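Slide 14.
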Amino acid sequence: MMTRFAALALSLSAMPLWAAECPPLLKDQAPLQHLRSKEQIDLCQRFAGKPLVVVNTASHCGFTPQFKGLEALYQRYKDQGLEVLGVPSDDFRQEADTTEETAKVCFINYGVTFAMSEPQPVSGANAVPLFRELAEQSSAPRWNFYKYVVGRDGKVVASFSSLTKPDDEDLIAAVEQAIAQPQVPATQ
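Slide 15: predicted structure.
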């Protein structure tokens, strides 16, 4: 006769795993430090299997008001699993001098609630691995607020220049395409 524990273990092993396998885009990368926090962003743990918008940001850029649209995009689709990751960068010489100022611009001035990392290099040879992989799949950011829409499978669905606003119909269509992708099952 099977014990309750053994029966439970057997039934659980027959169930599909819901945690998605971590795709190469997110795998084997050092965690990013959260902006003005001691916490780190483990890319696999936080974003694997989820539709994702990654954007390089800057606090003193003509496109900085796009934070408002990015937050609206996040609020509109977060219940459908969308994640947004903002990565401040001074690669184009428009990021604040301190993380305190960067945080103020993001969190106080624009009310950002999506994930924001500490400033990182996003272009060229010094780019963090995430942006090197995004560039390999698409193209490197040419300026601040370059946007990548990534599917649940970790592949870039589309990328958009700084001129593309977060409420642009093509960007929205790419986000909806990423959301519509089936969940990627974990390997057993």
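Speaker note: Strands lie at 32-33, 40-41, 52-57, 83-88, 115-116, 147-150, 156-160.
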